[in-house]
Request: fold
Amino acid sequence: GVDKLKFGGEGGVSLISWLAASLRVDRVMPNGGDTAQAFSILSPRLLFRSRWNAHDQVVLQYSHYFYGDAVVVRSGAPAAPDPTIRPDRDVISLSASMWW
Reply:
């Protein structure tokens, strides 16, 4: 009986044959319209490729989380809300992928 909503968008540009940049924005509302439990994510990233139409890429991404006042981390097994844990606000990731 709880409405959940996630939406976002991403835009990008290929700067040169081996480098592209993008920016993604997401909004997550895990408990309906309760904005205190909602959060947003801003994620700029750089994509390194071997050429324009490559089937491989290495992605360096930074994400910053903007939390509402009542966001609670779930911890343990089985997972249960733990209000003593402060969620991370900044994340850096490095990933690689190939497809054909």
In short: The radius of gyration is 17 Å. Strands lie at 5-16, 19-29, 39-48, 56-67, 73-75, 80-82, 90-98. The mean pLDDT is 94.
